[in-house]
Amino acid sequence: MTEPPKPLPAEYAVHCPTPPPIPPNDEVDNVAVLLKDLYDLYGICAGRVVDLLDWIDGGQQ
Questions:
Q1: How far apart are CA 14 and CA 11, in angstroms?
Q2: pTM for the full predicted model
Q3: Helices (H), strands (E): how many in the chain?
């Protein structure tokens, strides 16, 4: 018997956050903070992709 597909968890259907805008040239110190924020956003999205792949493979339910 064929089972219906599992419903997708809600957190996997949410788009990744939009990166913050680039600061003006006179705010060089903010570039390091912005870069760290971008790395944080990337980490969140990369983790969600791994979680989604695990979920699809049946590893996390």
A1: 6
A2: 0.52
A3: 1, 0
